[in-house]
Specification:
2 domains, two-stranded antiparallel sheet, 26% helix, alpha+beta, 173 residues
């Protein structure tokens, strides 16, 4: 097996020691894993992709997922007593990622024209709201056409042209 000598400055010695502890004593494995991740992220960044981190699941108890992608667009709408936010990304591997964030459902049992209800809705007053937990979902599809019916039609038409464009367009100016 080939060897590679790495010289570590005294200032970075504690960093390397901690990495060795976390890797179970195999510093070479830790360095290789870190370099793989660094190369993947840096190549993606140079191609115009960002590291995207989204929360999925129920609000407050969900988990985070991370991928490399570019945001094609976002669209918000209200449906009854909920707000929905749709975000569509193109992943570095050419798939399309749909992240939908749904707010908690709310009711306050009063007339919506009531001035105090609107003050409460805007966060300016007290409330005895009944909440239904909000949630976020993530779905990965192979083609842009697979998003039809999963996002509002107006949003689909708006971003259809962006689906085939490169993440970064190099201008020769």
């Amino acid at each position: 097996m080939p060897n590679k000598t790495i010289y570590v400055s005294e200032d970075d010695l504690a960093l390397f020691q901690r990495a060795q502890e976390l890797s179970g004593g195999n510093l070479s494995q830790a360095i290789s894993a870190a370099l793989r991740r660094y190369i993947e992220m840096e190549e993606g960044r140079q191609e115009g992709y960002d590291e995207i981190i989204v929360e999925i699941g129920l609000q407050g108890v969900g988990r985070k997922q991370r991928f490399s992608g570019v945001l094609l667009g976002e669209w918000g709408r209200t449906t009854g007593s909920r707000v929905e936010m749709f975000r569509v990304y193109r992943s570095r591997k050419g798939k399309f990622v749909l992240h939908v964030d749904r707010s908690p459902d709310w009711t306050d049992g009063s007339d919506s024209d009531n001035w105090l209800s609107w003050r409460t809705l805007l966060g300016l007053g007290d409330s005895s709201w009944g909440f239904v937990q909000g949630e976020s979902t993530l779905e990965v599809v192979d083609s842009f056409q697979d998003l039809r019916g999963k996002v509002p039609d107006e949003f689909y038409e708006l971003i259809a042209d962006l689906a085939e464009r490169p993440a970064v367009e190099d201008l020769d100016i």
